[in-house]
Amino acid sequence: MEFTQSGDVLAGRYQLTDLLSESREGRFWRAQDAVLGRPVAVHVLDARDERAPRLMAAARNSAAVGDPRMLRVLDAAQTDQVAYVVNEWGEGASLENALAAGGPLPPQQAAWIASEVADLLVLAHDQGHAHGRLNPEAVLLDDLGAVRVIGFGVDAALHGIDPDTRDSQRRDRVDAVGVLYAALTGKWAGETLSSMPPAPRDHGRVLRPRQVRAGVPRPLDDLCDRVLGSGADMPPLTAAELHSALAGFSGEPTAPLNRPSAIDEDTQAMAPPAKLEPAEAPAVSNAIGVAPDVVRPQRQRPASPPPMQDPTPSKPLFADETPGYTPPPARPQQAPAAARRPVAPDASYNGWQGPWTGANVPIAEEPDYNQKPGANWLRIAMGVALVVLVLIAGSIAWNIVGDDPDTTAENPGTGSNGGGDNPAAAKPTAIKDITAKDLDPHGEPPTETPDLVDLVVDGDTKGLAWRTARYNDQIGDGPRSLKPGVGLVLNLKGEYAIDSLKFNMIGEPTDIAIYVGDSPWSADPSGAPAAKGSVGAEGEIKVEDAPEGSYVLVWMTGLPQVDGGYRAEVKEVQVLGTPVS
């Protein structure tokens, strides 16, 4: 099929940039509209493919629905070579990525997102149309805080599914509750395939959300169980019934708010709280994330301190506390007598009236006439001399221990080798300023989305990810493998002894072999790898014997299964090692 490479221009206008997914030669691209200078989403299919007429019909039906919660169809055409549909590009994050980055949502926010999806289904199903492949990847939380649904009808047609059937509408309703389940638990329980972790099951039944995550309100838990779990055999709910149940819980939306922080969801009210008065309404944020017209509980203003019971002290704050002491009356023009303690009866002191009697002068301790003169100084000198001797002895002992050939820093006195100093080995640390290059020796060209490869070493474990192409069959050494592997070549900018590699991924598992060398790879690696392992969303592979080199090859020999095939997505790779002097 023509127009299969990044950089190709479709219809003289749409330049293909990023391949987002593919299914049986049908491809979904991010592209740039050269006429209007904006990004767009393009579904491309070979014109001779049997799915092409259905793709064109799905584009027309999607445009007919005309709801702002759908990414609009901007263009569609079929030439002698290709059939393509151009959709509006939505800026934001898919629900799948939002949940992967921040975890499950508060119940009312989850219910509001699902209610928006259900309300869109009401409109589309009434016109006889369906999405056909609804999952968290198809639900976009855009930069303005709204819910947008991606690929309505078109994505199903690209995957060989007729979206305009009763079964597609039934699957839409199940998947809409699956979206709710995913937002509440971070697990996927719908019928359409998704790259999210699957919901746990017991004897084939999906567990209730409350069995997966504490604090899910009972109405939402019952709805999920009714559609996805023990009640799945009952008559299905309509899209209107789903929307009514969800809207009654979440309330109607008004404006996007910041994503609420975690609250005590066990005690959260089952019905939405009352609307705030305008003077009390919180400031609106256009951060990614949506919320209904309910807000997190606001912190109450602290109560004012209680008034002082007796503002007048019963005595001056610094009154003399000497037992039995009663200060003499003071003259009106002088300061209170209790303000100072008399220390001596001299002429300059006027804090007392009348003759001084000495009654309030502290009595000095009787001296010890049996004590020999200079005894205190002698004791002090002896103490100082003892301290000096202890310090000298400690210094000598330290030097002896340091020169002991059987001593190591980690285990004094139990060294394994004799002779000379044995300083502690440097602790492996993360190597900085690494650069990356993708490697696909069997590809044409031999690369895998090179424009995204810098993301694997940008230090951001929560951001965007580099990804391989989507393969219909697994790679590796298996009998039906398409190729031995694909990889990432990491340039360390210096020679290091490699200790381990840490990974942040999307999907699991990914089988990886680690190679260490002094030059970059341009073909399949040869010889035994320095280490092998399998990682999930987060993982670490330990490298034995600390091999030294300036380059590291992350060679992927098994990819996670995703919708329609196999693909690896790498958010970050961190190499730990020590410099080789």
Describe this structure in words.
The protein is an alpha+beta fold and 581 residues long. Helix content is 21%, strand content 22%. It has helices at residues 52-65, 95-102, 107-126, 154-158, 166-185, 209-212, 218-228, 239-250, 375-403; strands at residues 9-10, 14-23, 26-33, 38-46, 73-78, 82-88, 92-94, 139-142, 147-149, 201-202, 205-206, 429-430, 435-439, 466-467, 486-506, 510-517, 531-535, 538-542, 548-558, 561-562, 565-566, 569-579. Strands 12, 13, 14, 15, 16, 17, 18, 19 and 22 form a 9-stranded antiparallel sheet that branches. It has a 6-stranded antiparallel sheet with strand order 1-2-3-4-6-5. The longest helix is centred in the last third of the chain and has 29 residues, at 375-403. The model is unreliable at 252-328, 330-370 and 404-423 (pLDDT under 50).
Helix content: 10-25%
Shape: globular
- Average pLDDT taken over every residue: 76
Cα end-to-end separation: 53 Å
Biggest sheet descriptor: 9 strands, antiparallel
Provide a count of the helices.
Answer: 9
- Which class of secondary structure composition applies to the elements? alpha+beta
* Strand portion: 15-25%
* Model regions low in confidence, pLDDT < 50 over at least 5 residues: 252-328, 330-370, 404-423
Q: Output the radius of gyration.
A: 38 Å
How many E strands?
22
Attribute tags:
single chain; 581 residues; alpha+beta; six-stranded antiparallel sheet; 22 strands
